[in-house]
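Worked example 3. Consider a protein that binds magnesium ion.
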Amino acid sequence: MIICEPAWGWTVGAVCAMAAPYPTVLTGLALAILGSAGAGAGFALRRAKGRLREEERLRHGAEGELKAYVDMLPIGVVTIGRGGELVQCNRKAPDMLGLTPGQVASINWESPAISIIDASGDGIEPEELPWNRALATARRVSNVVLGVESTETGDWAWISVSAQPRLDSAGEVLDVVCTLEDVTQQKTTEAELTLHHLRDSLTSLPNRALFMERLSRAIIRSDRRKFFSAVLFLDLDRFKVVNDSLSHEAGDKLLIQVANRLRGCLRPEDTVARLGGDEFVVLFEDILSVNDGLTVADRIAQGLTQPFNINSQEVFTTCSMGIAISSSSETLPAELLRDAEVAMYRAKAKGEGSIEIFDPSMNAQALARFQMDSELRRALERNEFVLHYQPVVGLQSRQIEGWEALVRWKHPERGMVPPLDFISLAEETGLIVPLGKWVLEEACRQAGEWSRAYPSAIPRLMNVNISARQFQHRDLIGTVLEALRAADLDPGALKLEITESIMMKDPMASLEAMKTFKSMDIHLVIDDFGTGYSSLSYLKRFPVDTLKVDKSFVDGLGKDPESTAIVSAVISLAKSLGMRVTAEGIEHREQMDHLLQLDCDQGQGYHFSRPLPREAAEELLARDPRW
Ligand code: C2E
Ligand code: MG
Ligand code: MG
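Given these inputs, the predicted complex is written out as structure tokens:
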């Protein structure tokens, strides 16, 4: 690597080469100097010795002048030798490259002292560098914009580079003269012009496109700096509740305030972007370890704990966060974002306010879930779901007083798949909505058919389980009405089972929906009662007909004093609120007797019957047993 200090030999040829893009200034300059050198040569013809000295003096004078001019130029000028090495440069060039003259002396284009990207922010292969292209093709390369960053100071500039090869008489490339022009200002203005395309209009945070661009640059840079880049994916918990119970306008206000809080929790160099809805992402460029990521996540969680003031109302929110860290410059930005999202879903599943770090095994699980989801969708299309029916027995009457429809997946290879293996996934992916609709239609159809085929003095109700997502779905009421109409079933013959946690997720909205069902004469049951966290004050306000005591308490009845006390308390509570009680999971006669003593109305469980396929249930109806 050769670097010429002040007395570098700028030749006229080199000046002409670089003059190409600046014809008026530089060509004029070169010609003026040439002219003065020519005049010196004529003078030397008469005295050989003196002539030689004079020529020498003139040559040096011309070169000195050339150098002085080139040094004064507001652009950088560098000559790159045939081997790609920097041969010489003017005074401006090191400055523009963000290097000291000392660093320039030992420059290596792949050196960690300098990092170069292309105009779109991607890393650039050495052979794509303009001088290398000029060397390889022996042709001029014009106006290639490169981003150049000093990895030491972080100084950053956009430089437009033109490279002009100089050829010898045989047409071989001698070297390449490059001119460097700082276009940072221009590029920034351009970026600002496109800024509104890159910002989220609600929060004015960067949008997905801008985030992805910054992320790709960060990944390249972090590899050079030996830091990690990390993406934190954040999703607000229960944002929907705010949107639905207050208003969309209130939801928007919350998002704006959350965006401001997030900005406040982060350093100016971190990027926080909104991907859409209540999803935000943060990019950290200088993470040293997983712990650094967790520290920031904690800071964010802390920052969101204070209530938000929305239309003079205090709103509390938490968020679920997933973090993914790039391990090398090979990481694709989209992959890193997806990993962070997978981790966020993991955090959501753990419970509100959780933080998860992505680990590759999550991907395997995500893949398995993805496959299962596609299988489930196909199963729905192919009618692979069936309903089994478990009788609900009157503890006084000892007869069938109703049925609970329980879905199963008749898998072509795996056989009968129980609901616990697929309901939560269907719930997560939203498939529960069409699946639940099918269950409602089928259960109502069956109930209608049985009411006609097996008339009875006691009205037999059909219980259908409703999941959270279904309950929140605005079409549920329409779906129920349509199912009843299609089955020609009296609304009073349908009971919807909702768990406590569903109701408590959004008590106000639940109350509204439940009132509507009640006004339609449809019965409502709180399923698995005792396992959630019902507020008793709410319970009083909900138009619920029946509490279903969870099997876990029935199991301990008569054996474990706590369970016995709970069952007895639930029954008293229900009675005092004018509700009926069904006990689930009755497996033994003693449990049934004990429940009867406690004034429990109905029971369900293996003691009476397991859930049965349609034909077996019909046999039972035909027999009309007494237990
Ligand atoms: P669940 O609504 O609490 O249903 C009662 C579960 O307890 C059923 O399990 C039933 O088979 C089981 N069971 C009933 N009696 C006994 C007993 O004596 N001993 C024991 N060990 N178990 C008993 P299954 O059918 O596996 O359903 C599990 C859960 O899946 C249901 O709990 C319900 O939450 C959900 N599920 C089932 N079908 C549907 C559906 O169509 N839609 C929705 N959203 N969820 C459903
Ligand atoms: Mg149930
Ligand atoms: Mg239950």
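Take a moment to read the result before moving on. Confidence is low (pLDDT under 50) at residues 1-9, 19-46. The pocket of magnesium ion (ligand 3) is lined by residues 527-528, 548, 584 (CB under 6 Å).
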